């Protein structure tokens, strides 16, 4: 068999025509459909593309024993693809773990005005802005959240635990965020 894509198309047509001649019309229509999907997967592998692409949930239309499709993996992958499409990422370093816990509880964050301007601009220009949190000197990530709105100076600031060099008045507006992951992840478990 030819490994070029044109050759594979011709070769798969030959296989289908041989199958249709050797089987009845009712069984050939059902078997050629599934074999066609199988042939497509083999083509993807033979063309040197990533094998995981052939198992992609978006291409896989599988039914479980009850006849209903199992879409859990598809939904998860769809959400991830949506989340990371046109996304800006920012690493947020907090002076202490207390502020990160307040943020997780209240779903808000505040930062200095120069950082706030960068976050607001990213929020206006991209589909998603993800904030990856880490506490200084902790050696780990504290989780990540998605900005759900630009900063708002009319919202009340939570009782942040601030270092003596920063006053609450020097902070910008309150940024509303949706926490996606609350788990901590040590730096040694990542490649960054």
UniProtKB/TrEMBL annotation:
Region (Disordered): 1-72
Ranges annotated as biased composition (Basic residues): 12-21
Biased composition (Polar residues): 61-72
Cellular component GO terms, alphabetical: nucleoplasm
UniProt superkingdom: Eukaryota
Gene Ontology molecular function: mRNA binding; N6-methyladenosine-containing RNA reader activity
One GO biological process term: mRNA splicing, via spliceosome
Pfam families: YTH
Compositional bias annotation for Low complexity: 22-34, 49-60
Residue ranges of domain YTH in the record: 87-192
CDD domains given in the database record: YTH
PROSITE patterns, sorted: YTH
PANTHER family according to UniProt: YTH DOMAIN-CONTAINING PROTEIN 1, YTH YT521-B HOMOLOGY DOMAIN-CONTAINING
Annotated protein name in UniProt: YTH domain-containing protein
């Amino acid at each position: 068999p030819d490994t070029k894509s044109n050759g594979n198309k011709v070769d798969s047509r030959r296989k289908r025509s041989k199958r249709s001649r050797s089987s009845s019309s009712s069984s050939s229509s059902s078997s050629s459909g599934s074999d066609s999907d199988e042939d497509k997967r083999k083509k993807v592998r033979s063309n040197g593309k990533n094998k995981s692409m052939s198992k992609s949930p978006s291409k896989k239309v599988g039914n479980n024993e009850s006849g209903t499709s199992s879409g859990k993996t598809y939904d998860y992958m769809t959400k991830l693809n949506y989340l990371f499409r046109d996304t800006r990422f920012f690493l947020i370093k907090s002076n202490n773990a207390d502020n990160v816990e307040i943020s997780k509880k209240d779903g808000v964050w505040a930062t200095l005005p120069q950082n706030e301007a960068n976050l607001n601009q990213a929020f206006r220009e991209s589909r998603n802005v993800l904030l990856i949190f880490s506490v200084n000197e902790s050696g780990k990530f504290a989780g990540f959240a998605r900005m759900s709105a630009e900063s708002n100076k009319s919202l009340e600031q939570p009782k942040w635990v601030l270092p003596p060099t920063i006053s609450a008045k020097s902070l910008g507006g309150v940024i509303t965020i949706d926490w996606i992951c609350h788990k901590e992840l040590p730096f040694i478990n990542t490649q960054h």
